[in-house]
Design brief:
alpha/beta; five-stranded mixed sheet; Beta Polymerase, domain 2; 202 residues; 9 strands; 17% helix; single chain
């Protein structure tokens, strides 16, 4: 492993050069580099990040879905769904974040990267389960956190807080049963107390 990490500015330049036209943006903020790639070049770009000499991101340490529909208090005008990955190069001691937007809001779909990193298997299943993002080429894309009969995708911003159904075990029938939600929908607004010198701030 490298003794020290490359400077973020240098990493940004290295990644921009390695990806070329495969990258829409290579941004540096708060000491972290974020690469945005188009869905059509996503798999190709991820393979380059794994294999290119100045990149060598051997480990996919996270992949998650994002729903931008309420981002910026509704001022967001881009695609609704994205997948965001975090990758680590152990050999070069560097990290990168990759963001890719799904072209179709009604049927969000991206290529799988399971063939590049086996760790993507469960991460992509989670993004499918919670956000409804399909990963083309995934060999076992099924729910991983919710029940098999679950309806909808609970991390989408328009999913109701109380869900659609309640599930419980019925001792008389000796099986799990689904019933309409019995909880009254309500919004609880927390009481915020402001102090003039809270935490020593002026």
């Amino acid at each position: 492993m490298a003794d020290f990490a490359i400077a973020p500015e240098a990493l940004k330049d290295t990644l921009a050069a390695a990806l070329g036209e495969m990258a829409q943006h290579v941004d540096l903020a708060l000491g972290e580099v974020t690469v945005t790639v188009p869905a059509a070049r996503y798999h190709e770009a991820m393979k380059a990040l794994r294999d290119a000499p100045g990149c060598r991101f051997e480990q996919l340490i996270d992949l998650c879905g994002v729903d931008y529909s309420a981002y910026g208090d509704g001022r967001w005008e881009g695609p609704r769904f994205a997948a965001v990955s975090h990758m680590l190069s152990v050999s070069l001691n560097q990290r990168v974040r990759v963001r890719v937007f799904c072209p179709d809001d009604d049927f969000p779909e991206l290529p799988t990267v399971c063939d590049l990193w086996s760790a993507a298997n469960w991460f992509e299943r989670e993004a499918f389960d919670l956000y409804g993002i399909m990963f083309d080429g995934h060999t076992d894309l099924r729910r991983i956190l919710t029940d098999y009969g679950f309806i909808g995708h609970p991390f989408r911003k328009d999913f109701p807080l109380s869900g659609h159904v309640e599930m419980r075990y019925d001792a008389d029938r000796q099986r799990v049963v689904y019933e309409p939600v019995s909880i009254e929908p309500r919004e609880i607004t927390p009481r915020v107390i402001r102090e003039d010198n809270y935490g020593g701030l002026h």
